[in-house]
Amino acid sequence: MGGAPENLGRLEARLGHRFANKALLEEAVTHISAGILNAEASRGLSYQRLEFLGDRVLGLIVSTMLFETFPLAPEGELSKRLADLVRKETCAAVARDWHLGDHLRLGEGERRSGAKKRDAILGDACEGVIGAVYRDAGFEAAETLIRANWTARMHAPRVVPKDAKTQLQEIVQAEGLPVPVYKDIGRSGPDHAPEFEVAVTVPGYPDISGRGTSKRLAERAAAEAWLQRAGKRPASTETKETV
After folding, report:
1. Backbone φ and ψ of 19, nearest 5°
2. What is the band of 234 on the pLDDT scale with cuts at 50, 70, 90?
3. Domain count across the chain
4. What is the pLDDT of residues 42-78, one digit of tens each?
5. Does the pTM exceed 0.90?
């Protein structure tokens, strides 16, 4: 598995937080695929529960930052800014600043497929780290981490990203090819926490798959994987919008 425990000290340095409970950080960088042979038992040892917590902590703190920074902004504008700042792509960008992909613990199949570079996995792991910091040292420590990594992003012009599926469709149609076709190829996990796998087919190119907690997210992950393989990241076609 990737990301041996002895390397996590470098991650702590980038985070600016030394864990009193190192097991929390180890859990935060562990993908469920690392224990795929015993997925039900390993689910509690992956970052999924910490991701759930970190998502809520991130939303609360970023909402507070926006409320303080834009005192005249109406609720609608604050909601749009919040959505931009907590979306998976933004969390993945923060994870890349931390070099989090170098420390992720993945199953063999996920590692071979380049999962450590996927926005969906990096974004989830980023939220897992936030949850781990919160559990380790409380709200103030999590707030310090989030303010250090989101303040500049909060002040940047808002961006309206193109969805990976939209970008892929535009690319293939520009080449005169049919629209991409998405095919369900697998489902794993219990009914209350399923994981779907979907492959995308584009004539003339090898199929590539993606995973997500819903079919829609799995399709987006497959489109993102196709774009990354082609050297075209979804963020490359973002357009700026002033609000």
Report:
1. -80, 130
2. very low
3. 2
4. 445 899 999 999 999 999 999 999 999 999 999 999 9
5. no
Q: Tell me, yes or no, if 55 is annotated catalytic.
A: yes
Mean of pLDDT values over 140-149:
98
Please indicate, yes or no, whether residues 145 and 213 belong to a single structural domain of this protein.
Answer: no
Residue 203, domain CATH = 3.30.160.20
**Which residue out of 55, 110, 119, 197 is catalytically annotated?**
55
Query: Pick from 136, 132, 131, 106: which is nearest to 118 by CA?
Result: 106
The proportion of the chain whose per-residue pLDDT surpasses 70, expressed as a percent, equals: 86
CA-based nearest residue to 211, from 72, 100, 118: 118
91: left (phi over 0), alpha (psi -120 to 50) or beta: alpha
168 and 82 in a common domain: no
Q: Which residue in the list 127, 195, 197, 219 is annotated as catalytic?
A: 127
Q: Tell me whether residue 119 is one of the annotated catalytic residues.
A: no
Same domain, 17 and 128: yes
Q: Residue 19's domain spans which residues? A: 5-156
